[in-house]
Write a structure and sequence with these properties.
Layout (H helix, E strand, L loop, with lengths): L4 H40 L34 E10 L5 E10 L5 E7 L11 H8 L4 E5 L13 H16 L4 E11 L2 H11 L6 E4 L6 H16 L3 H4 L1 H11 L11 H4 L6 E6 L9 H12 L5 E6 L7 E2 L2 E2 L2 H11 L3 H5 L3 E3 L20 H24 L14 H30 L5 H31 L5 H23 L9
Parallel strand pairs: 3-4, 3-5, 5-6, 6-7, 7-8, 8-11
Antiparallel strand pairs: 1-2, 2-4, 9-10
Helix pairs in contact: 1-14, 1-15, 3-4, 5-7, 5-13, 12-13, 12-15, 13-14, 13-15
InterPro entries: AB_hydrolase_Est10, AB_hydrolase_fold, Peptidase_S9_cat
GO molecular function: carboxylic ester hydrolase activity; serine-type peptidase activity
Protein name: Prolyl oligopeptidase family serine peptidase
Length: 511
């Protein structure tokens, strides 16, 4: 956007006489703007400051073996017969169930119903888990998960529990099953649903919880994100995004299942419980969770809890993505040895667990931190920036009534481009970090270098905006149309900058 000839001489005189003095105020103004955005980002909240985990769980022995008064079969003791059945639910719907039974076992067997986590939903899941247990004389049932109770935005855990209870009732009617010894196996998210089924099923005999969140997903998810970021060596400012993303998503009434607290159901469980974790499960509070469950069980007068930790296993009891057999031998011994297994076995055994920080309750964000409000702010900022930029460009077209922006046009358009690039780089960075975290990989160049690149872009964008604003202040527009176009584009850019600051892009002494 070239200046008019009559402005050129004045500009040269100003730059010659006051150039040195103007650079200092410009830099100071820019630094002040950076500090304002950084301070606002820190204040906007909610904050994130998890406390060190001081409570410890010390295993009584390194051996995870379950001890009981009877001899229990080893894995592979029986051949396994597999069959698929249709089971009718209370509402008339039918689901498929894979039934696995030990071949050649005399008499009736204990049985267990598998509850799905987030990653599985058909009767074909848990094939190895269920086969191992069936080979030790336990009848296993893996049902489909009714997806009308389950979506990304809404999940009806109570409704899902009724489905699994119906499968347990059907299982008790099978000739190979001893009806008084039917229990539930819940893994990951399924461990949130299993306590509901056990409490509402008066005939439930036992409960197995594997990689149990033991608390609302809102808290567990924030804990997991924190643990992953610490493992990656992420910069401290990035942690502030954890509560803002999770709480912001829930604030609009979506993902309300993330607030479901299994604690009130734990407090009503009276059957024996076995919990199992891998010591390298970063996604679960492997110390805090069992402590909370044990305290809840005491409300029901229940001390029948057996806790096992498996060295180097991660979420779902896997090592290098391979399911480990020892946990399922122990689970089998727990079930086959009841009731003596829970009384004679060490209450806590296996490898030493470590949880560095506690899972904490997330605060509710301010109105502008909700998902809908943040999306509206971002969309408005982009729309105004684009509209204002088009108005400015249109004002320079030959067939239009030509406008002059007196040296403000180019820096303001440059700041708009840089702000947009900063947002694109930030989103790409978040996706890259998420991929690294979910794959348990580390890459310092991406984690540290990526955020530095985003911050540099953000600082440059703010510098050009401050530079444009200072020129505008020194050289008021000659027409209302030019001034209006600048106001539109500046308003949009300010919205985008404050939205960036909310996610910790600008440094602050308060982080």
């Amino acid at each position: 956007m070239a200046a008019r000839p009559e402005d050129a001489g004045t500009a040269r005189i100003l730059s010659a006489r006051t150039g040195a003095r103007r650079r200092v105020p410009l830099v100071l103004t820019w630094v002040l703007a950076v500090l304002v955005l950084g301070a606002w980002g820190a204040w906007a909240g909610p904050g994130w400051n998890p406390q060190p985990m001081t409570n410890l769980i010390v295993p009584q022995t390194a051996s995870t073996a379950i001890i009981s008064a009877v001899n229990t079969p080893r894995l592979g003791a029986f051949e396994v017969a597999s069959s698929i059945h249709e089971v009718a639910l209370s509402d008339g719907q039918k689901i498929q169930v894979t039934l696995r039974e030990p071949v050649g076992k005399e008499g009736q067997s204990p049985a267990i119903v598998f509850l799905h986590g987030t990653g599985t939903f058909t009767h074909k899941a848990f094939a190895q888990h269920a086969t191992w247990l069936a080979s030790t004389g336990i009848v296993t049932a893996v049902p489909d998960k009714l997806l009308n109770h389950y979506s990304a935005f809404e999940r009806d855990y109570v409704g899902l529990s009724k489905e699994y209870q119906a499968v347990a009732t059907w299982l008790r009617a099978q000739g190979s099953v001893y009806a008084r010894e039917v229990g539930y196996y819940g893994e990951s998210e399924g461990a949130l649903i299993a306590p509901i089924a056990v409490v509402n099923d008066a005939d439930a005999a036992f409960l197995v919880l594997v990689s149990d969140p033991a608390m609302p997903i809102r808290e567990q998810g924030a804990f997991a994100a924190d643990a992953y970021l610490r493992k990656l060596g992420a910069p401290s400012a990035l942690y502030q995004a954890i509560p803002r993303l999770i709480s912001g998503a829930i604030a609009d009434g979506n993902f309300l299942y993330a607030t479901f607290d299994p604690g009130p159901y734990h407090e009503r469980i009276t059957v024996p419980v076995m919990m199992a974790y891998g010591t390298k499960d970063l996604s679960m509070p492997i110390v805090q969770g069992p402590i909370r469950v044990a305290e809840d069980l005491k409300e029901a007068g229940n001390d029948d809890l057996v806790l096992r930790y498996y060295k180097d296993a991660d979420h779902g009891l896997r090592i290098d993505k391979e399911l480990q057999s020892q946990p399922y031998q122990d689970i089998s011994d727990f079930i086959n040895g009841l009731p003596s297994s829970v009384r004679m076995s060490p209450a806590v055994a296996g490898a030493q667990p470590r949880q560095d920080y506690t899972a904490q309750t997330l605060e509710t964000p301010r109105w502008f931190g909700s998902g809908d409000a943040m999306a509206a702010i971002l969309a408005s900022g982009l729309m105004l920036t684009l509209l204002g930029s088009l108005l400015m460009i249109g004002g320079r077209l030959p067939w239009a009534r030509r406008q002059t922006y007196r040296g403000v046009g180019r820096p303001i358009l440059a700041s708009g481009v840089l702000i947009t690039l900063t947002w694109l780089a930030f989103l790409a960075y978040v996706m890259a970090v998420a991929r690294l975290a979910l794959s348990y990989e580390t890459n310092r160049w991406v984690v540290q270098g990526g955020v530095l690149g985003v911050q540099i872009l953000g600082l440059l964008a703010l510098f050009f905006l401050v530079f444009a604003a200072s020129r505008w202040y020194a050289r008021p527009m000659l027409t209302r149309r030019a001034g209006a176009s600048l106001r539109v584009v500046v308003t949009g850019q300010i919205l985008l900058l404050f939205a960036l600051a909310y996610w910790g892009i600008y440094p602050s002494p308060f982080f």
